[in-house]
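Bench notes, afternoon.
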Amino acid sequence: MAASIASYAPYIVSLTLIFLLIAFATEIRPPEVTAIAAVGVLLVLGIISTDDLLAAMSNPAPLTIAAMFIISASLVRTGTLEVFARKVAEVAKRTPVVATGLLLVTIAAMSAFTNNTPLVMMMIPIGITLAKQLGESSSKVLMPISFAAILGGTCTLIGTSTNILVDGVAQKSGLKAFSIFEIAPAGIIIAIVGVAYIALTRHFLPDRESVASLVSDSQSKRYSISVFIDATSPYIGRKISDVNSLKAGERRLVDLIRNDESLRDDLNDNIIEQGDIIVLHSNEADIMTIREQGRLSLKTDAAAGEVVPVSSHQSVLAEILLLPGASIIGQRLDEMDLLQRYGVYPIALHRRGVNLMERYEHTALAIGDTLLFEGAKSDLQRLVDGENLMNMTEPKTRGFRTQKAPIAIAVIFGVVIAAAFDIMPITGLAVMGMAAVLATRCIEPDEAFAAVDWRIIGLIVAMLAIGTALENAGLVEMMVAAATPALSGFPPIVALAAIYLLSLTLTELVTNNAVAVVVTPIAISLALSLGADPRPFVIAVMFAASASFLTPIGYQTNTLVYGAGGYRFLDFARYGLPLTIIVAITSIIVIPIIWPL
């Protein structure tokens, strides 16, 4: 039986890989789930063994990436990135045009040394503020922020998880490890060309409406009002959900206060009692009517004074972005009781360029979704903090450990400098840096491990195991054997371009980490079969696997700005296609000059 399966292994692995890529592209299930399921199938069929799986887990890439996630999170926790964000906001108020260029250049530079996902998260509110200062739609700024972060990540080995993963796969194939700045000469040139294109052409981006545009300015000014139930009220003894007047027009029932305690958890089932304070949300016109009448018009007879306004405070609308670590991802709004838990009311959902007003409560939430919530500022802040969300109208406010900022900065510089002098492999340096920020309490353990995107780590380990399956089945050799005769009559730069285009195409369809694992062994084998140096081919995979400018799903930062900027799917293709061509041509020209084939 085992011998029979082994004879069909190339076909089984080929079909598995095809189904895997289709599942990635169609998003039937999250990529990490699909990849792990494929590993399970390959284990059952005996194409890979438990030892192969353990070997994948021992690859230096997953540990290095996890450690860099934690070091990057320490920069956020100590307020280092927040200080930069405030400086840009200050410049934006004085000279918005200069601030735009400064923002893009600095994001690209910082992305070379920190994880670009938290960096873009931090910059989204700044980009929205900057757009307001320029009198522009935020869609003119947010896509450039993501693209600048992607370009900056290609300047160093630690700039993106893809570079680290390609290096790990290349080492497994027998290549010497890449140094931290080895790809910098080409990466900097490509980043300069790309950022220049973005800065000069961002005005061609379309004006898109975000989810907040669903509500007019007059509607956006809403208030919370507290009303007191006195002894004469005819509603004493009635269930609060049965009093239709409490929910008439624009009024929304938010809370019931009794003896200074909130009964929000069982709001609709409570019986109204004397002395209760009922909290309502309503628009400005309705509040003015209440004030003019001196009471809410809830009576059924001529009796006066049964409900009296006690106090009111302004309620606001906020655009909330679902971050990768948000605890409500995969849940439905109608199942979460956010009104009872936080006192906030969901109004609309924006996804994939569409503002959903109907049945959005029954839609499972996903990364990059933008929700419009109504509530008091304090309640919205509790929601953001409690569920790990982002209020896009302002940077996430929290108590930063600013006194630890010099330590976090010293750690990242120490890792970079030590790696530059090749004192130790980057994995060891990253682990030492992680240990330093944890030991000095720049970040607490629970915060540190929550900052690691374990889905990416799981995907990487699974794809490394699938890469082993490709080798065990001899599929890499079969692909190279088929491609070599077609390319052998051309200069090696043609093969380099073919590898770049293959990586680029797959990156736009599936996750870039999967591309890194699948294409890197092919690139190395193809180069060796053509008698060329495999190193520039591997670098081409690094650059192409990160050059995701055509779709919002190829790279996580694109997914984040997708909903935040109100973009449509094809906006990325229209604006990103020229950038993709420019970056591809620059890469294919520059790589052989710096690393001769």
